[in-house]
From TrEMBL:
Segments of this protein annotated with the region Disordered: 156-192
GO biological process: proteasome-mediated ubiquitin-dependent protein catabolic process
Start and end residues of each UBX domain: 430-506
Species of provenance: Lithohypha guttulata
Designated name of the protein: UBX domain protein Ubx2
Domain of life: Eukaryota
Lineage: Eukaryota, Fungi, Dikarya, Ascomycota, Pezizomycotina
A GO molecular function held by the record: glycerol-3-phosphate dehydrogenase (NAD+) activity
InterPro entries according to UniProt: Thioredoxin-like_sf, UAS, UBA-like_sf, Ubiquitin-like_domsf, UBX_dom, UBX_domain-protein
Signal peptide boundaries: none
EC number: 1.1.1.8
Pfam families on file: Thioredoxin_7 (PF13899), UBA_4 (PF14555), UBX (PF00789)
Class of this enzyme: oxidoreductase
Oxidoreductase among keywords: yes
Length: 510
């Protein structure tokens, strides 16, 4: 190490401490350290470097007490978060955040002024244009020009560790292949072992991602009865990269998403994201609105759930996904929650409805504060369905009233036929014959043990015999993964797939 420091000091005129920092980043490679020093302007890479004695020096990439990550440049070692010590993870995240800000700019940095658009000659098409285009139809020529314009407009930033681009090899082989990873990052992952490690750690989950357009996703979602879950990425926002590491590569989340959703992840500059941003994400240019994850109904195109600005940790996010699946269903006979209150977001009046004074005031605010700050923050549509008073209960009451008026008397509902004098008695604990079921309701949650051979109706009997406080005598449904358990009440808990399940109690009250 001392010899390498001496060589770098001779080449760059850097101080020995500064040279040590660059050599540690490049795993002792003098040539790479010198190149990195001149490219970065010789900036300080993180304060004084630790002193390394000869007795503690080991081979590059072998791992030691100061550098717990051991990665062999010649081997293709899959790296996951669970295989990295906590201290190493903190160091990696700090370095990743710094590198991301250097590559793409932080949230508070000024936009780099791009070079002027090069001059170009355009030809206006008119009568007789078919002859000008060599006999091809005018429509084909126009489509060709529009495609060229779209390609120029959709030109994205160069690939990198935090802006990995999809390639045919990645869709086929996955990010575990080292050469495919290098192609996706434009060679950035091959700089050194640490860069390769970070590239894998923050790589998108290509295997989970739907490879197609927005319209194709809607068509497949309707055919497969799967919701669309959309993630719009901004390479300048580090929390977007954290989603790839913590959320989209979490095994439990991957399993849930694969079974119930089609996952679409677009960069905000991707032309495929234009249609989505136009209809759902009007604030896509405002960095404070990221991260952005939403669930869309493929049948109607309605955005029914939104996570914006702050995404919960993996465990809470998974629980919210299951809660969503309990409350919503793509079954045409299911009753999905509807909005019970108006949006609290303050919407601006259209420009043509403003007075001259109001137009002047808005223009002044836009010039002083910046147009992005005037945009109304997006609001979670699912939150508008949560309030006192259930419209679904009102609809049920109206239907029952109409049946009574038509038939003269109303037939007892299925819920009314459930006995209310059979309190629950938990069976003895036996992993082979019993299971615990989590029962969630508006007031909280309950966990009870049932026998696998018990009928699903036992859940209804328990809730009716021991009603939730303040909900006595109110009709309810019990839903699991979008299925109303009243329809399978004669099946056993094991047959209905309720082993270790979580169910949701929905009250039908006016």
């Amino acid at each position: 190490m001392d010899a390498a420091i001496a060589q770098m000091v001779a080449f760059t005129d850097a101080t020995p401490d500064r040279a040590r920092q660059y050599l540690q980043v490049t795993d002792g490679d003098v040539e790479q350290a010198v190149s990195l020093f001149f490219e970065s302007g010789g900036v300080d890479l993180g304060g004084p470097a630790p002193v390394v004695t000869e007795s503690s020096t080991t081979a590059v990439g072998s791992g030691n007490a100061r550098d717990p990550i051991s990665i062999d440049d010649e081997e293709d070692v899959p790296v996951t978060r669970s295989t990295i010590p906590a201290a190493g993870m903190e160091d990696d995240e700090a370095m990743a955040r710094r590198l991301q800000e250097e590559m793409y700019g932080g949230a508070g940095e000024e936009e780099v002024i791009r070079a002027p658009i090069a001059r170009q000659a355009e030809t206006l098409a008119g009568p007789g244009a078919s002859d000008y285009y060599g006999g091809s139809s005018l429509d084909d020529a126009v489509q060709e020009r529009l495609q060229a314009f779209s390609n120029r407009r959709g030109a994205r930033r160069a690939p990198g560790i935090f802006n990995q681009q999809p390639t045919s090899r990645i869709w086929q082989e996955g990010a575990a292949d080292r050469s495919a990873l290098a192609e996706s990052t434009g060679g950035a992952s091959e700089t050194n072992s640490r860069a390769q490690h970070l590239a894998r750690l923050f790589a998108p989950n290509w295997g989970l991602m739907f490879n197609g357009s927005w319209d194709d996703a809607r068509d497949e979602g309707k055919a497969e009865k799967k919701w669309l879950i959309v993630n719009i990425q901004n390479e300048k926002v580090f929390d977007c990269q954290v989603l790839n590491r913590d959320i989209w590569n979490n095994p439990s989340i991957v399993e849930t998403v694969t079974e119930n959703f089609l996952f679409l992840q677009y960069s905000k500059d991707d032309p495929r994201a234009d249609q989505y941003c136009q209809y759902y994400f009007h604030n896509s240019e405002v960095e404070d609105e990221y991260p952005h994850v939403a669930i869309v109904d493929p049948r109607t195109g309605e955005q029914v759930k939104l996570w914006s600005r702050k995404i919960p940790n993996a465990g809470e996010f998974l629980m919210q996904l299951h809660e969503f699946l309990d409350r919503y269903s793509l079954d045409n006979t299911a009753r999905n929650p509807v909005a019970k209150r108006k949006s609290e977001a303050k919407k601006e009046k259209p420009l043509d409805m403003l007075t001259e004074e109001e137009q002047m005031e808005r223009a002044l605010q836009a010039s002083m504060a910046g147009q992005g700050s005037l945009k109304v923050p997006d609001e979670d549509p699912d939150e508008l369905t949560r309030s006192v008073g259930d419209l679904k209960g009102k609809d049920v009451a109206m239907v029952e009233t109409e049946q009574t008026q038509t038939n003269g008397s109303a037939a007892p509902s299925l819920w009314a036929q459930i006995p209310s004098d059979k309190p629950h008695e938990e069976p003895p604990a036996n992993a082979a014959e019993t299971t615990r079921i989590q029962i969630r309701h508006p007031e909280g949650r309950i966990v009870r043990r049932f026998a696998l051979k018990d009928k699903v109706q036992r859940i209804f009997e328990y809730l009716k015999a021991s009603p939730i406080e303040g909900r006595e005598g109110i009709e309810f449904d019990v839903v699991a993964m979008g299925t109303n358990l009243m329809n399978v009440r004669d099946q056993t808990i094991e047959e209905a797939g309720l082993k270790n399940a979580s169910v949701m109690v929905e009250f039908s009250e006016s």
